[in-house]
């Protein structure tokens, strides 16, 4: 069960089915309530019309015995004392009205008796009815629910109670009922239809959602299988299939392929880095070993200065590799404030042919890393300058700018990005001792980027190369 509902398709199907079920229940309840309300109102209107008709007859002075009460509708006429004075024929039992009596008490005298008016007075009927109607007052109907038995058949009714004030008989109340059988039948029929139709509709919704979700997630399953194959084979050159759509799944596939491409590039760069580092370390180690072996066999031939120089090269290369490893691991620059002008002056001190124009400009970051950046730029300039190197430190808006310019041959436009790659040396003919390992500029740009800045190169006014370092002010 847990495995089944661990599927996105199963959860989507269950969720959609539950939502539709709740909506159907709410809609069904609303329909049933509305249907019942309408049918009850219809029964009430029918009862009110019947009661109004009887009340009009009472208002016209019609005797109780001559009232048109019908024989299929429960009707009661009750006086102010609660006495049943008229009732429809066939009524055997009633509840929900002012009295449960079903037999009217016989009264004598005038129009209030159970008999009608005499035939001798028939010529005056119209005048008497008009006078009685004008003296009567029919009130608004009140409604109650109850039951009644007519002719041996019991049913639920909506009763309307209509009061009528007459001059000769006082206040009377007419109760008439409208059958609720139609309402009950309609509600029962609708309920039965819903009990049968709703499960079928939910089954259809579940099936359609399952199929649609399956079709929608099919590309995701393809991506998952391909990613599993890539993980098993460790072949980062493979790519996941991209569906020919413009939805989220297609964007996921494209993003996954972009991630794989970046990972492949990163791994390849790491492999080249390890290979180049091994190659760079091999030469000074071999040279140092050779000198030590010669010195062990012939002490008088030991080249101590050469051994020291190779050791220093190894130390510098190891330090550069360690710094690059820390930068690749995401080491932060820190937030210590330092004077970039003072750092430039210190790094330029003791170097031949270097002139410095440095203003006091504060930045935030790692002193040792920024010293390494300026030092690497000066080392690079000294390798290529003919006679002079210029260093300037200034403000430019919200930036601190360090420029290192030489009067050498400069850097070709096509090589101005490549020189910042690791282990790149444009002058392949120069010796490794003079040229270094090709890590200085790569370290400088990485450190600049970590500090939120940039490092670029362009032509210097004197015709050489001008390296510009930009860092945000503290």
Description:
The chain has 474 residues and is an alpha+beta fold. 50% of the residues lie in helices and 19% in strands. It has three domains: 1-235, no CATH class; 236-331, Signal transduction histidine kinase, dimerisation/phosphotransfer (DHp) domain (Helix Hairpins); 333-472, 2-Layer Sandwich (Heat Shock Protein 90). It contains ten helices and 14 strands. The strands form three sheets. Strands 1, 2, 3, 4, 5, 6 and 7 form a seven-stranded antiparallel beta sheet that branches. It has a five-stranded mixed beta sheet with strand order 9-11-12-14-13. It has a two-stranded antiparallel sheet with strand order 8-10. A hairpin with a 4-residue loop joins strand 1 (75-79) and strand 2. The radius of gyration is 52 Å and the shape is rod-shaped. The model is unreliable at 107-123 and 428-433 (pLDDT under 50).
Quick recap:
The chain is α+β, with helices and mostly antiparallel strands.
Going by helix content, strand content and strand pairing, the class is alpha+beta
Q: Note the run of SSEs as H and E.
A: HHEEEHEEEEHHHEHEEHEEHHEE
Query: Poorly predicted ranges (pLDDT <50, ≥5 residues)?
Result: 107-123, 428-433
Number of helices: 10
Question: Into how many domains do the coordinates divide?
Answer: 3
Measured by DSSP, the beta-strand proportion falls in 15-25%
Average predicted confidence as pLDDT: 83
What is the total tally of β strands?
14
Q: Helical content, roughly?
A: 40-55%
N/C terminus separation: 59 Å
Measured on Cα atoms, how large is the radius of gyration?
Answer: 52 Å
- Report the sheet with the most strands, covering strand number, pairing sense and barrel closure: 7 strands, antiparallel
Shape: rod-shaped
